[in-house]
## 1
Amino acid sequence: MGIVFTRLFSSMFGNREARILVLGLDNAGKTTILYRLQMGEVVSTIPSYVYFETCELISLYMLDAAIGFNVETVQYNNIKFQVWDLGGQTSIRPYWRCYFPNTQAIIYVVDSSDTDRLVIAKDEFHAILEEEELKGAVVLIYANKQDLPGALDDAAVTEALELHKIKNRQWSIFKTSAIKGEGLFEGLDWLSNTLKSGGG
Amino acid sequence: MSGHDSKYFSTTKKGEIPELKEELNSQYKDKRKDAVKKVIAAMTVGKDVSSLFTDVVNCMQTENLELKKLVYLYLINYAKSQPDLAILAVNTFVKDSQDPNPLIRALAVRTMGCIRVDKITEYLCDPLQRCLKVDLILDDDPYVRKTAAICVAKLYDINAELVEDRGFLEALKDLISDNNPMVVANAVAALAEIQENSSRPIFEITSHTLSKLLTALNECTEWGQVFILDALSKYKAADAREAENIVERVTPRLQHANCAVVLSAVKMILQQMELITSTDVVRNLCKKMAPPLVTLLSAEPEIQYVALRNINLIVQRRPTILAHEIKVFFCKYNDPIYVKMEKLEIMIKLASDRNIDQVLLEFKEYATEVDVDFVRKAVRAIGRCAIKLERAAERCISVLLELIKIKVNYVVQEAIIVIKDIFRRYPNTYESIIATLCESLDTLDEPEAKASMIWIIGEYAERIDNADELLESFLESFPEEPAQVQLQLLTATVKLFLKKPTEGPQQMIQVVLNNATVETDNPDLRDRAYIYWRLLSTDPEAAKDVVLAEKPVISDDSNQLDPSLLDELLSNIATLSSVYHKPPEAFVTRVKTTQKTEEDDYADGGEPGYSESPSHAVDSAASPAATSSSAPHAVARQPVPATPAPVPDLLGDLIGLDNDNNGNGAIVPVDILHEGPPLPVVLPASTGQGLQISAQLVRRDGQIFYSLLFENNSQIPLDGFLIQFNKNTFGVAAAGPLQVPQLLPGTSASTLLPMVLFQNIAPGPPNTLLQVAVKNNQQPVWYFNDKLSLLVFFSEDGRMERSAFLETWKSLPDSNEVSKDFPGIVVNSVEATLDQLAVSNMFFIAKRKHANQDVLYLSAKIPRGIPFLIELTAVIGIPGLKCAIKSPSPEMAPLFFEALENLLKS
């Protein structure tokens, strides 16, 4: 009997993993978010060229920033997310498009304290939305690094990213602090609900 | 035709690649794995599946080791063709090199080494550093450490500077003291490899490392032993005592089942023996080395051949080792011919008064076999023994005479050739046999045999009653004879005349001299004839003294190597070098000097497409791949006797990633003459009354040539070509006369005329005009204009160090900078452009990115040491190239731009 039910359930959600891309500029916190989501532990990454000195929490894991990609499977709210964390360095951004096909959702991570590069973040973001292959993808924005002084709040980030321009797409923005683990799962709740209701 | 037929053009089949792509992106792991397998299968049969790069790489982060290996295999194959995308794999390497599973760590490190993409090399240093743990503890798994050691050597090949900066060399040297013998062996292999590609001393064995190596020697795998022995053979022992100690530790290796180990041990012992003074010890060692060498001859013929070639060298240095073993070298009837030939050679070397009877019996036997080449060599061997062993000469000659009596044509001819040498060695001793020789005069048809016979007749004319008749019979066909025979005929006739100045010979000599002076094209023959003629006409007595002078006695030195060459070859025993009997530089291109330029060429710019990495791993018994380019292990090509390697079994199941390299990669064509596009026509046939000339200045091996093609489309033969160059900017002029044969109507001839510079320099501002005049005996003088391309003047030594480049750039005032835009030139690939420039001796210095532009810096040098500092700015794929140059001679800039444009446009 148990097997039959599993099959029933799985057929309701296709027994597949939702494919999610985590995108954003370098040093936005993508890899930390990925491992935070996966392990619920604080993970701090050290890009090979920028040295973190402001890091308040001693990290349990010291990972290099993704030059290339990380992929992990996260189980949340009965949905399996296949989360792809793509490196955000300028040199790698052109290759994001290789990962666009069959994507249900995008998590766009913004370093809310890096006001200088918000413009670049905006441009990259809108460029992604233009992509044909991502037409049906749901967009979740993390206004990350809220723990840092001078970080913009979600409203300000919404403004800076010109999110109001988004048409024909479900989106939402959440204030997060990946290092403290705040806001991440609220966002994921929204994402899983949207996907379940057929948004993806 | 109706519109319905359009359906034939639209197909529902998607084709293999899109199908694979879909499967690779499948959500099911099994399907993905199957898809990767299909991709690898397609790759193996030679289909291009590089377009699936990202899709395959996306499958890389997996728990499944099998899948991971497949993806890695794919990466190694295609990272080169997708250098930009290769960066996507970096993160996985970083993660895998920290994996708790040592297999995965090693796999990652090993794959990193095989990915020869410069762009990601730098990223790969961190993971490598982690495995070598330069400052901290080493990776606790020896397999990972040894893989890392090999990886350092490979990395050095890609980017030597990086390896040194990162301290990897020191780490590698520390690995020599590792407690695991496999790690030691691989560290030694890696260091030896690096040493070969570097001109600085990097790997030197000290007394400390010596004891480490000697300890590791007994415990490591057979191929590891080979590497350690090779390294030890380069060690210069401090004194005889130390040498003796080392040799003592190494002698047990002589009993090894693997012939590569045996040969390397022999090499090492021979090297150290040079230092050992005690004759007892030396005699003892010689005794010990004989049995293993003999054992090698019971292996397969291919190994026998390698062993024989090496033994050939060894007996030249120390004949005593095998003095009593000559029987081993007797040819068996079923030996392959190449083994027989080598055995003969060694038999001659080992022949002595003691064993000559036995040896002669063998030779005589061989001389009646069926293989012509072998028979000839056997006959020649008899002659060489006669020359070598005075006391045996008579016996040898009697054997030769017996052979002549068989009347087999080629035996007779060969015998005559060697008998001539015997006469030279023992003058006035065996002339009694001349009569026998003369019997077979008519059968001679080979030039060498004929020439030998004629020499004998001339030399002993006074004792041969009918010498004049004999020579006369040859004279009839004088004009048709090959040069060798003509020369001998000439000399023999002169000798005959001097010895018997009678009427017959007098007439003969007239005929011969006439033939050899007036009717011949051969300058050697003509010169010799004139000398004789003049001698005879001025002072016949003096001619007698010259022509009939006593000749020095010859000795047998054929196939003897020059002592210094022998030394070098002996230090390369057990490598291809000792098989070819050539020093490594003679057949391997990647020796130090060329290596350096090659490596610098691509310091930032990618990969030389043709040069396969010489880096090989000494992995397991299964992959004995040769190691060094300059001295690849010849023996290593042979199937390895299946000795289970004392290596953890985790070795066994890895895909033999290192096997991909060629064991015989050393045989690289050294210098293929660059045959470019057809030469531009400078004098069309319509202007030249049917003579068409195409020409261009070219640079080859650092020398400038004027490459010319003459085509005679006229109705008359043309000859007597001469060439003259007008004054020009570089003072280019011919270094020698133009050598063009007579051109019959409808034929053509091409020639390379060597050129010199700064002969007659035209004053005024530099220009590219080269005015040339060509004349021949039949036509008026033709004048035509050619263009000097600055490119041919760029010398091979134009490479600058980065620092020197910077300094020169700074030191030159801005007024010396000239720039120009080339709107029509598109740079599609930095690497391709750099390759193109490197061919013309413009050397890559550095590269940087400026916005979306690539900025390249190069250096070049024209004669008189005037440097050109070049800056090229372009956006990849978009037309438009900006070129700025700085030079002490900015007035040359227009010439430079013109040349560059022509180069890049093509």
## 2
Amino acid sequence: MSRLRKYKPFARASAIDVMAYRFNIITWAIVTVAEVACLIFLWLAVYQSSEGGIDSSINGFTYKEMIVYVVLTTIFGFVTFNDDTVWFINRDIRQGTIGNFLIKPISYRGKFIASNIGAFLMMSLVFGIPLYAAGLGVLIGIGYLPVASIWDFIAHFLLFLVASVLACLLNGAISYIFGILCFYTTAAWGLNALKTTVIAFLSGTLLPIAFFPNIFREIVSYMPFAGMSQNPILILMMKYDYLECGKVILISFGWWVLLELIGKLLFNHAIKIVTVQGG
Amino acid sequence: MRYVKLYLTCIKRSMMSRLEYKKDSIISILSFLISNACSLGSIFFILQAIPSLKGYTPAEVGFFYGFSMLPIALDHLFSDEFWLVAYRRVQLGDMDRHFLRPVPVIFQMFAETFQPDGFGEIIVGVTMITICGLNLQTSVSFGAIFVLIIGAIFGAIIITSFKIALSSLAFIFKKSGPLLQIVYNFTIYAKYPIAIYPQAIRFILIFILPFGLFISLPVDTLLYGSYNPYLLSLIIVGAAIAFFALATLIWTLCARRYESTGS
């Protein structure tokens, strides 16, 4: 326990930090509402154009479910992914501050995990609770998200929380790996953009993985990305039974351990070639 | 003529400073291409599940998507500096030197940066138009091509006008980046035919934020001959002139309010 305590200041600092950067929350809200509206119009047109009409189910999703999916994915992304890991690593290399971490008795990766969790908790408390409450309240209220029994919903919600934490950790681990690539190239901006794009596509944020063609879909659903957006949301929507929930959570956990290992190996290699510029 | 020479000199300098970060540029172009492949993939996967989108075949939707990139890319090439004006430069009081030079400030902004990233968008857009265009079932008329070219060029001028007008608000409010971001983000609506939107949104996309006017209507003209191409071209050019004139007027009025930070 005392070993963990030394990471607490990092979690606290990033929790405070994330609030400072969220001053442009109104901009985010307006841009996002406009984007979500655009997606809803697109999906409406898609379902109206489908063979069975608006009430048909495409790849296992009805129109209503798709709207729920789009709205929840948007809230989820905002609350869960708040990492500047790539930027921080890049800065530490550029400014030479990485040296500070190499001589201190804390793990470089541990620092980022603490920061990610701190930011995640703060975002969940300040924005997550009201946004999920409002979103779920409206979606359930207008009958877009049917709830069979309240206990079933609570159980799925708890599983969703577990999956969210894992999604946050997975995102952190992948960001860390991309960040370490900054040791080899100076292109932090491009790397970060690449990371964001790949995650958005393969995690089912752009559209559910069920829409991907056959083999591609099978592969992608076992990759770590599915656990970063689609699976938590489908748990929350109660599209998975408990067995499936357990399965996807286990897969995510396995991937997280594996990605941490890969990150560690990469770091051990990268640290040998680091040249601190004037540090 | 003097201005052309001045512009080229400035751009050469801007390009030279960009070449310092060659690897950065390559990775950012690569990530841009992958990002486009992902959004295209998404649209394609959606379209596979349905026979047509409100009557538009996948090739036609792809044509829309590709064409919508052209005016956006042209604007991107020439007017990237206005983002910095809106977000940072006025706030930092970094505009002083531009006001001291004997050349209009607005011209200096265009000359400050040339953003080669826009070429990536043009390449992707033209490729898509070509591939999807070959799969279209329509006979292409000269008028339709003409209105598409007018739409791309003058559409870019309209987008730039929005950037000029909104970024100049920073002279009054110190920072107008978020507002510019909000308005600019509506270009995502331009990627699809306006037929998929409700009446009210269509009205906005033609008369207020006219992305539909220079993207959707010209493409509809090509595909279905919906409008008279020459009349439509005239309207687009007229709109572009009006928007640009209004934007420079707003810029001039707002720029008078610029005050340095005194640092």
## 3
Amino acid sequence: MDRYERELRRSLRWYPKHYRERHGDEIVETALELRDLDELTVSKAERRGLMWAGLATRARERPPFLNWLAYRFFNIRVPHRHRMWARDDLMSRYYPVRTIMASLAFYLVLVLPLYLLSSPETGFWAMLAAPLGGALGGVLTNGGMIALAGGLVVLMGAASIPYQRRRMLTKHDFHRDGRPVHWTTYRDPSGRVWAVRA
Amino acid sequence: MALREQSYLVLLALTEGPRHGYAIITTVRDLSEGRVRIGAGTLYGALDRLAGEELVAVEREEVVNGRNRRYYRLTDNGHRVLSEETERLARMAETARARLLMPRPQLGMGFA
């Protein structure tokens, strides 16, 4: 692989991972055929074209906002045409970081306001915080309680990551290593149709 | 369906049979008399969009020099859309030509 091809492959990183796996060689092959004989480095125009095309592909492959919200916060499956985006997200080394950030965001945006806005005597506060504060012998201040609850949310989120990842891969019809699941059907002698996962 | 110029030229490049990426780019360049030069990234973005609208499809794959090469073809739907767009452009060109041939209004004609 010469310098020109290395630069091309570096430019491919603008594309989503599954797209690179499927079309990357084809794009590089075409760009190499277009290369002028005296060109030692990839032209700015070609690099720019690859960048914009890669970003446009990422935008196209990403699920709509509400689907993304449901996937990130409630582990709801994305529409089938976006499942490769989900696979890339689940297999990414940054999936744990994104999951923890989502748990923290959920806590800060939904749980914490309920806690802060409810009255100490009634509602959410009385239901949760007062008994816990009492059980801890009044050691923690309100700020401490909030930080403790936030820390527990992060820890629980982190602990559930391996299980969540496996579950979400299965939901999107992938094996644990990210390979797509293939279904084959057959009819048994009684006429019943069976679907077999492979 | 209105097409962008790049998309139109890519579809036109496929009218004579399936082509792979490099052949599509050089055909587009020839059809546009050297004016439209698209790179590999732009081409595959256009092919993805056109495939999403079912105007093009993958005809076959070959392994050349150890690399996968795909040939793309025009679908029936793509052929129909291309024909309609060509007719629309032809009508517009005809209208434009007729207007350009009309005598231009001279200044001062209203002051006899």
## 4
Amino acid sequence: MTAVAERPASSNAGSGYPTVASRARDWAMSAPTQLAMREKHLGIWHEHLWGDTWTTILEAAHGLIALGVDVGDRVSIHAEDRTEWVIMDLATVAVRGITVGMYPTNPAAEVEYTLNDCGAKVHLVEDQEQADKVIELPASTFPTVEKIIYVEPRGIRRSEDPRLLFWDDFLTLGREHRAANANAVEQRMAEAEESDVMTLVYTSGTTGPPKGAMLTNKNANFGIDVIIQTPERMAGGKLPGPQDTALTYLPLCHIAERVFSTWALVGNGVVLNFAESIESVNANLREIQPTLFFAVPRIWEKLLAGITIRGAASSPIKKGFMGMFMKLAGWIGRSRVQNNGNWTPLTRVAYAIGWVFMFRAIREKLGMNRVRWAGTGAAPIAPEVLEFFMGIGLNVYELYGMTENTAVATANLHGRVKVGTVGEPYPAIKDGIRIDAETGEIQTKHDANFIGYWGKPDKTAETFTEDGWLKTGDVGEWVDDTHIKVVDRIKHIIITAGGKNISPSEIENTLKTSPFINEAMVIGDRRKYLTALIAIEADVVGNWALSQNMPFTTYRDLSEKEEVIALISKEVEKTNEKFARVEGIKKFRLIPKELDHEDGELTATQKLKRSSVEEAFTDLVEDMYR
Amino acid sequence: MAFGRPLLRRSYQEDAAILPTWFQKGSLVFFLVTLTLAVLGNGFFEWLPIRLFGNTWLGLIVLTTIFGIAALGLNILVGVTGQVSLGHAFFMGTGAYTAVMLGGNVGKEESWKACVPFHDNLGLLESQGECGLGLPIWIWLPMSGVVAALIGIIVSPAAVKVRGLYLAIVTLGLVFIGLHLGRMLPEWAGDFESGRKWPKLDIRLWKEETPLIEISEDGKWFGLIHLTEVQKEFFLIFAILLVMLWFAKNLVRSRTGRALQAIRDRDVAAEVMGVPEFKYKRTGFAISSFYAGIAGALFGAFTGRVSPIQFGLLLSVDFIAILLIGGAGTIAGTMLGTLFVELLPEVVESFTDWLAGQLDSGGPIGLMANFLLTEGGEGDFGPISIATVAPGWPMSVFFWNLVIFGVLIVVFLIFEPLGLFGVWLKVRNYWKGWPFSY
């Protein structure tokens, strides 16, 4: 093992306010031969060292200056996670531009909206698919876009759009500019100020059009200092560092992946590994065996469902062992949950036995054999899921934060875990979080609070209280005066006709722990009783149907089968048993189509757009109250 | 960094490594060290349950090694290229006789004249002699491979013309041509029944008296360690096997190897895809015969005296058995098959001997011995005869072995076409997938 450098000291005063770009430069100066990123290409993980990475960032930054990107100009990036994403992001910050990330799944209409809303000057696209979303429309649709840089030339090379520029040519341009103006980028970096907006993070917009949250260098610095560099987060208090590896697979335009990938990279030198695609995450995880792993609840649920299903399909002997050790894992998990995530001597012994026979194998197959810190956030997760993963020995911590406060809010800290809560405020912002006594809303006030929405002062004003606290829109309550439990989004709280306040996400998450259920939406605001729209998990239910010798054709056909309805009905009953009578689901309907981002039913982060779903399936909903 | 991440491939070298993990590298080293120690000192390993590495067994192990080299060759032709051949014994014979003609008759003058066929009629030599040039091993060993390979190339056009069963018949013909030549040319082959002497494995620079490295006598090697003749022969031949193994393994994963496999899977399709059928069938035959030639030369030299009759059809069938039981097309399977086929008869025989010793002892073992063995007396029953070697019921151990192989080949062909290697794959995948099935 090569010696790894410690985190380099922050840049000295003369070189401008520290930004993510200057942090990257510091790494390249102090440890040029250290590994920064890995990217898989044609079956081989290619490694990028800090020295080379910074050279490329510099060339890209010079290229941006050559293209006329000035202080405060927007550079948009529309690509899957890849090294060019990070390089362009850091290069943009280096020239004091503003990075705007877009979800790879964004349809053309949303691309048009976002590009024009932020007024991007340079637009980076990954390939023909993303380029077409811009160049197929008349140039006058995008008055501000001057250059479209593409990374993969296949299918674009012959296009004659004058705005197009190949990535390699862009870097060559940068190299030439660098030869002529050696210090242009360094100069820009030296002028960086703490109030510079460094990125616009577009909120996914469960209601209304997406809004671009402006995050400044100050926000980013505070975010890195508080989230990445809180040693209490980790077992043994060991901060993330160059010996740690992470898999980058969630969209980088989302604040969570940005914090745990780009900022962990420039902040602490965590080695980033770019997954080939979201479909290959499982295989990539097994190859990389990361030490730090962040996932949204949907991923955790899928991992758990994968284990359950594959376990059920294995041979009788294996199944027997599996059943036995899953029980053991359940017991260990419950014990750890009761002990704030800590081990007892008894669970340690039980775990050691389980490790030999089962847990090591399962963790290896999940790609989590070396995970020392795992996080979940961005949406509520069912405690049962966390319990299981804690049972197979993972340290999973639920975190809470949002785009508007740069994801700085609460986290479960090592040894003080309370499952079911989102943890306690980070030690650095003890007094920066409060719960409004009247509305129960969680509010934050600290250096990572964003400065406003891009071009929407009215919306910005709505987001802050009169005394400057950020309104998160989440209802929360204190648990034991230390931890915070998020009840639900304020807008989602259901008040039944009987006047009872009910949080639908808790019920929905319990429903979603069933491997057969993909998505669930509880309805009942101002109604007599609760009902639910449920989307089945096509693969799992399909396999189940096959095992029952039940022929089916399409998703719709499958979800209309009486046997399937009976199957889901059983799952719903199981959920009902866990809740009070008023919180029981009286009726449910299966959604006859797969929910999709492009049809407007899900956001880019796969969150349900409740109003659109309710609208699209009004007849189903009304049918349940007839 | 890659340590503990066995699936992380950072270069094509890593991706194509024969032993990708440190565990596998360590296992190989451990195996080699253990084998060396076991061969070296019976003294160290008295606690081993069987006298597997005593000198009684070592000769057999050397033979197994030699057969392993030949089987590797046949695997390249049958398993990798998919050309059925029953002529492997012929190619082994070619190598063996090339060796004896180039390296035999050390120290005798004029014996080259016997190498010209029909020299009597040409008036070259008065009395009958045996052909041999007395050349050193570094000439005759490679040459025996090369000559066999050349003959293989000459035969290979037949494989383009005929396929499957017909090719088997054509190559079968080679064996009989070989036997006939052996009978026709006593100056080359020696007496048809009793054979002739082969050159020793001593390594000489040229024809000098004291060899550079002494193999054929017990004694100190390099003034360091005392070894018996068989031990020395083992180390030399095992080293050759390792080289051949390494080459075969690399061949299979090279461009040539992939071309050969394409031809195996469907020669017409391969040709359509741009893999020249004739060229690669020729290559397959050449490489396969090269291996056979080397093995034949070593076989002759190690045994010391061989007659043409030994390179008959039975030997060819032995190799087919090795491939089918071990697993055609895989290097590891070939090695497993060789070990199994060559050592099983000895194991069965030793077991019978041991059982015979227990005949008069009481207890369950004596009972079992009584039940299994028969000495041919009145009222003595049991399937295994220890009194007679002739066929008939009860059968002797020798015939039982033949039956066992026949049954095994049938069983493997029906239930496990990948042979012992397939069994290993199944076991490995069972644990690899643990606790899942896929």
